Amino acid sequence: MNYEELIETRDAKTQKIARTPLGNVYKQLIDKKYTNVVKIRQELIDNILFGGDIDYEYSRDQSVTDEFQLRFTPLKKGKDTIGLKLESGNFVSFENLLSDSPSIVARKNFIQDTVEQLLDAAETLHKQEIYHICYAPSNVMANRGNHEVRLLTHGSFYTNIKNRQLVFGEFEDFVAPEVFGEGEPDARSDIYSIGKFIEYLFSSSSVPMEYKNVIAKATSEDPSKRYQSAIDMKKDLQKKGQLFKGLWIFLGLALAALIIFGVYMELNPEPEEVEFVKPAPKKATDQLIEDGFDPEDDLGITAEEDSTANMTEEERAKLAEEEKKNEENFRRRYAAKAAHILNKVYNKENMDSRDAKTFMEKNGDSFDELSRLQTELGRENNLTNSKSQRIAAEVLEGLTQQKTSEMGE
């Protein structure tokens, strides 16, 4: 087995870190150290323009000092560049990252941070008239430690190769259509590719409305209908994010009000109409008193006295302490069980209800359950109905505010 065959065998056994338009990225043993290396595709090596392009990019990339730029050194075989030796570091493509850990897209701010980093990187490159062209998930890398975006070689250095299918054909789904035409790629070509990258991030979940609008505009077939710069796309995404966040908070507050109102109506039913009877004319009692009539002696009637009137201060304090404990116990138990009930109310299906009637129809059982819970716990803790209602309303208000806050994050 000669040297080149040995390299091929070793490449097959090593992990493929990324797939770029120039070739695949592997970990290879160089000078007794495992190093990230791009193995250039042979068809590019054979292209007469490629050698000058890669040397020119190498010289230009030295001026890109931002952290997103991965440094490389050309590996030569005679006059040909057969590979790129990358700076040391633990990197992985987004394709592999999402394949190994699909749930990472649900991590708070992961998508937002990734997209903003891409747009910031694109804006920096565009100021130097450099265009990445291909933001395919296999061609965008991340630091394994903190998942920060890293970019390697940039496609605009190779657009002088007439057959652009040779360079970008494998990534056609992520490359703007004009790149394969006769026109020159520009910032809008990167906008298209970033839009496709964002779409990929949501491939295993539904796309939020604010991202749907941004993706649709970014990936328009007509470059003039796309965002004209990365900074414009970033601003619009942030603006739409704040708008939809505000709408969700408003909806949450509306639902919270509906919940409290529904429970209030359950706890305070409309009173039945009572027909009052006009009392009989009051008879004078003066004569009876004069005749020696004494209600207490003759009828055995005594005035009702306050149940605490004859209590000592110590007994009153003890009674107040018991009532406080009962209220605290009611509050604690009601809060725990009410939180569980409200979890049935605050879910995706319910949050899609846009009107009060539909919302109340879906959650009538939950309101009934909250009402029964208040009555049962109030009775168990010897609380009057009015007191248990008051505490229940306070607990529900706090819980709904908490749910609304979580929804707005």
Written overview of the protein:
The chain is an alpha+beta fold and 409 residues long. The chain has helices at 3-13, 42-45, 50-61, 94-100, 110-127, 164-168, 187-201, 209-218, 230-267, 286-290, 295-299, 313-345, 348-351, 356-380, 385-408, and strands at residues 16-20, 23-30, 33-40, 72-77, 80-86, 91-93, 141-143, 149-150. The chain has two domains: 3-228, Transferase(Phosphotransferase) domain 1 (Transferase(Phosphotransferase), domain 1); 246-268 and 317-409, no CATH class.
Main sheet record: 5 strands, antiparallel
Q: Give unreliable regions as ranges.
A: 243-251, 295-305, 352-357
At CATH level 2, the architecture of the largest domain is Orthogonal Bundle
Q: How confident is the prediction overall: mean pLDDT? A: 80
> What name does CATH use for the topology of the largest domain?
Transferase(Phosphotransferase), domain 1
| Order of helical and strand elements | HEEEHHEEEHHEEHHHHHHHHHH
Distance between the termini: 60 Å
* Class by SSE composition: alpha+beta
Report the C-alpha radius of gyration, rounded: 37 Å
CATH level 1 class label of the largest domain: Mainly Alpha
What is the domain tally? Answer: 2
